[in-house]
Write a structure and sequence with these properties.
mainly alpha, 196 residues, 76% helix, 9 helices, Rna Polymerase Sigma Factor, Chain: A, Arc Repressor Mutant, subunit A
């Protein structure tokens, strides 16, 4: 959605237009849910946070500053809600559910072997993400899954672009090392299986 069109819809929603509010929710719901699911690892937590975030956003649309991106404001509110939820819930990842949410609807309809490979890959990604610091994980999810540019991530995270790039680089390096170690462990396990 173009920013000009989005600004018009925000004005209408702030004035009480339910259709405009619905359009705004539909435009951002999938990407916000995908982000919160990756961050929390729990569908019920992600759903609650997304719902609460939209309730707060719609109640406070009059406070939105159109000089900034609406998605950044929305994600900031959701992130604050997530931080509060972290005090209640510890992330527990369900690879199949987390991996299937990319912000769109792409359910696996592949043969069993391919599905098993995808499930293992998702599980490895989830474990690799858990090995990162909170900042690294969030930046990697925003950059790779949400496809946010560095400038938007820096604005959202409240840190300089260089720091975002540094976290992104370190996070990728740590994940790459995790995958190398993970693959080595799997090869050793398979060798032991065949020797037995």
């Amino acid at each position: 959605m173009e920013r000009r069109e989005e600004a018009r819809i925000i004005e209408q929603a702030a004035a009480g237009d339910r259709d405009a509010a619905s359009t705004l929710i539909k435009a951002h719901q999938a990407s916000l849910y995908a982000y919160m699911l990756r961050m929390s690892g729990r569908p019920e937590v992600a759903e609650d946070i997304v719902q609460d975030a939209f309730v707060r956003v719609l109640a406070n649309l009059h406070r939105f500053d159109p000089r900034f991106r609406f998605s950044t404001w929305l994600f900031t509110i959701a992130k604050r809600l997530y931080v509060n939820a972290c005090q209640k819930y510890k992330p527990v990842f369900d690879s199949e559910i987390v991996g299937s949410w990319q912000g769109g609807d792409d359910s696996p309809a592949s043969p069993t072997i391919e599905y098993e490979q995808q499930t293992r890959a998702r599980s490895a990604i989830d474990r690799a993400l858990q090995s990162l610091s909170d900042e690294q994980r969030e930046i990697i999810v925003l950059f790779h899954q949400q496809e946010w540019p560095i400038t938007q991530i820096a604005e959202f995270m409240g840190m300089p672009e260089g720091t975002v790039k540094s976290h992104l680089h370190r996070g990728r390096r740590k994940m790459r090392q995790f995958f190398q170690d993970h693959m080595r462990d799997e090869v050793v396990a398979l060798e032991l299986e065949f020797e037995a």
